[in-house]
Write a structure and sequence with these properties.
Length: 310
C-alpha cells in the first residue's frame, strides 16, 4: 500500500517556504509600508472623529447656561441633541450603508451619520459625546423578555449618582423630588415611571434588568478576562463595568495596536541584528555587554577613588 506524504514534512516545507518568502527584502518593504500607511490612516480617521465630537461638545456647552443645576442641564442638552440628530438621519438612511469600513470597523461616525443601528446608534453617539465632555458613563444593555440587549441606552454618573438616558426616545425619568432617576429607580417602580414615556414608546422595554458587558461574547477569552478583573477590582465593579464605552474610539485603538506591532517588529529586528553581528555591536556599544565581574570591578575602583579623596 502506497503511503502518502507525511503531514510533518508538509508542515516543515510550508513553514520553510513561508519563512523564506517573508524574509525577502520586497516582502519586508511591503509590510513596513502597509503598517506606516495604516498608522497614517488610523490617525487621520481618529483625528477627524475627535474634531466632530469636539464640535458637538462645544455646541452643547454653549447651549448650557451657568445655573446651579448645570450638570443636569448639560446631560439633558446632550440627550436632546443626539435624539434630534439621530431621528433626522434615521428617516434618510432607512437602508444600511454596506461597506468595508461600516461592516468591519463600524466607527461611531457611521452611527452619527446614519443612526442605522436604532437604539444602539443613539447610545454609542451619546456615550462618545459624554466621553468627550469627560462625563463618566456606561452603555446599558436592557433585558427585554429573556434577552439582554433588547434595548440599549446610557447611564451617566452625576454628583448625585447614576442617571439613565434613552437616546432613541430622548427620554430621561424624573423622580418625585424632581431629580433624574437611575436604572434601578425605574426598574423597582416601573408602574410610576411608565407614565413618563412618550407616545411612540415601545412598551416592551420595561426595565426588567440590565447588564453592561456581555462576558460570554467571545468564549474562553471574555470569561478569562472577567475572572482576572474580578480578582483585581472585585465582582461588583466588574458587573458594572462597560467595556464598550471604553472601545468607542476604534480608530484610536487600531492606531495603538499598529504601533505595538511596529515596535514588536522593530525589537525583533534589533535582536536579530545584535545576535548576528555580536562583534560589531560589542565594539560600538561595549556598555551593553558588561558582565557582572566588570561591573563589580568598576564599582570597586570607584570606591577606592572615593576613599582616596576622602
Amino acid at each position: 500500500m502506497k503511503k502518502g506524504i507525511p503531514i510533518n514534512f508538509l508542515w516543515r516545507e510550508f513553514t520553510r517556504v513561508t519563512g523564506e518568502f517573508l524574509y525577502t527584502r520586497y516582502t519586508r518593504t511591503f509590510i513596513n509600508g502597509f503598517l506606516v500607511a495604516s498608522l497614517l490612516y488610523f490617525h487621520a480617521e481618529d483625528s477627524y472623529e475627535k474634531k466632530i465630537f469636539e464640535t458637538l461638545s462645544l455646541y452643547v456647552k454653549d447651549k448650557t447656561s451657568d445655573t446651579s443645576n448645570r450638570e443636569e442641564t448639560l446631560l439633558l442638552n446632550c440627550l436632546h441633541l443626539i435624539n434630534t440628530l439621530g431621528q433626522n438621519r434615521a428617516n434618510i438612511f432607512s437602508k444600511e450603508v454596506k461597506s468595508f469600513k461600516s461592516f468591519v470597523i463600524h466607527p461611531v461616525t457611521y452611527d452619527l451619520i446614519t443612526a442605522n443601528g436604532a437604539c444602539g446608534s443613539h447610545a454609542y453617539i451619546l456615550s462618545r459625546l459624554l466621553n468627550e465632555l469627560k462625563i463618566t458613563n456606561r452603555i446599558a444593555q436592557m433585558k427585554v423578555g429573556e434577552r439582554y440587549s433588547g434595548h440599549v441606552l446610557v447611564e451617566a454618573k452625576t454628583a448625585k449618582g447614576w442617571v439613565v438616558l434613552d437616546g432613541l426616545y430622548g427620554l430621561c425619568f424624573k423622580k418625585a423630588d424632581g431629580q433624574l432617576a437611575s436604572f434601578k429607580d425605574v426598574q423597582h417602580n416601573w408602574s410610576y415611571y411608565c407614565t413618563q414615556v412618550p407616545s411612540n414608546y415601545n412598551h416592551k422595554y420595561k426595565y426588567e434588568g440590565v447588564r453592561y458587558t456581555n462576558w460570554n461574547k467571545i468564549p474562553l477569552v471574555m470569561p478569562a478576562i472577567k475572572g482576572i478583573l474580578m480578582l483585581a477590582i472585585g465582582k461588583e465593579a466588574v458587573n458594572e463595568l462597560s467595556l464598550r464605552t471604553a472601545l468607542l474610539r476604534k480608530f484610536h485603538l487600531l492606531f495603538n495596536m499598529t504601533v505595538f506591532i511596529c515596535l514588536t517588529i522593530f525589537a525583533g529586528v534589533i535582536f536579530n541584528y545584535t545576535r548576528r553581528n555580536t562583534i560589531i555591536v560589542k565594539k560600538r556599544f561595549p556598555f551593553l555587554y558588561l558582565d557582572k565581574k566588570s561591573l563589580l570591578a568598576k564599582a570597586n575602583e570607584l570606591d577606592r577613588k572615593r576613599a582616596y579623596y576622602l
